[in-house]
């Protein structure tokens, strides 16, 4: 049931992959909007009038100083965080690294980054990442 205080937002995630197929992931820092201390892809809130692929490019540059080329939408996830009273519609965009060496541009929002193969994911994952990787491992999503 919706009320004036309940808003659903769109927040994209960008699965940036390098030439080895590893994925760029970051650990959510102390000023992240939710799920602090958990790992996920670069991403953020979609701006009015912005396409999903434009948002993916912008967020990868803003957060990690890398240029990416989005290739497809892997999945759209309802990222519902009851305890934090947040609901995000979360398109996951696959993208290839075009140029740049990832670096932390917003250390207050993301405090650690790294490249990870699918069979060696980092620490605790966000709710949406758990769902995505479960479907990848089950073969429902091909990467």
Describe the secondary-structure layout:
Blueprint (H helix, E strand, L loop, with lengths): L7 E10 L5 E6 L10 E2 L2 E3 L6 H13 L2 E15 L4 E14 L10 E7 L10 H11 L6
Q: Can you walk me through this structure?
A:
This protein has 143 residues and is of the alpha+beta class. The chain has a single domain (8-137), classed as Nucleoside Triphosphate Pyrophosphohydrolase (Alpha-Beta Complex). Helices cover 17% and strands 40% of the residues. The protein has 2 helices and 7 strands. The strands form 2 sheets. It has a 4-stranded mixed beta sheet, sandwiched between helices. β5 (67-81) and β6 (86-99) form a beta hairpin. The model has no long low-confidence stretch (mean pLDDT 93).
Name its key features.
Nucleoside Triphosphate Pyrophosphohydrolase, globular, single chain, 17% helix
Q: Kindly state the number of beta strands.
A: 7
Strand order of the largest sheet: 4-1-6-5
Strand content: 35-45%
- Helical residue percent? 10-25%
Q: Unreliable stretches, pLDDT < 50, 5 or more residues?
A: none
